[in-house]
Design brief:
This protein is an alpha/beta fold. It is 43% helix and 19% strand. The strands form two sheets. It has a five-stranded parallel β-sheet, sandwiched between helices. Strands 4-5 form a two-stranded antiparallel ribbon. The chain has a single domain (11-137), classed as Response regulator (Rossmann fold), CATH 3.40.50. The chain has helices at 9-16, 27-39, 52-62, 78-87, 105-112, 126-137; strands at residues 19-23, 43-47, 66-70, 72-73, 76-77, 96-100, 118-121.
Length: 145
Amino acid sequence: MSSPRPGSLTSRLQRATATVLVVEDEPDIATFLGAFFRASGLEVVHIDPMTPGEVVVAMREHRPACLLLDLRLQGFTGLDVLVQLRAELSLPEVPVVVFSGDGRPERREEADAFGVAAFVTKPFSVKELYGLVSDLVGTGAPAAR
C-alpha cells in the first residue's frame, strides 16, 4: 500500500487526526494543553506515569505523531523516559518536545543528547508550542484562539 499523495484528502485527514501524547504530572498544565490541542484539531492522550515503562506502553498503544514530555516527573525524569524509549527498537521514532521549568544549558544539552526535536522552557507560550508541534506533525492548521 502506498503513502497518500501530499495534499490529498487522505493525507489531510491523517494529519488532521494526529495524536499527541502528553506526559505531564501537573494536572492543570495537562488539562490546559489537552484542551488547547484538541480545540486545534489534534487528538490528545495525557498520562501521568508512575514509571518510564508506562510511557513505553502508551507509545505502543497510541502510536502518537509527537511526544510532549515534561523533564521533571514524580520519582523519575523525562530523561529516564528517553533512555527507555531509545532502547525499544520496536517503537518508531517520533519527534519529542521536552519542556521544563529548568532551562539551564546543561538540561538542554542532556535532552539534546537524545535527539529531541525541541526543548521548551516553562512558562511557555501555548501558541508557540502549538506552532512547533504543528510543524512536527505536519498539520499546518491554525492554532485555536
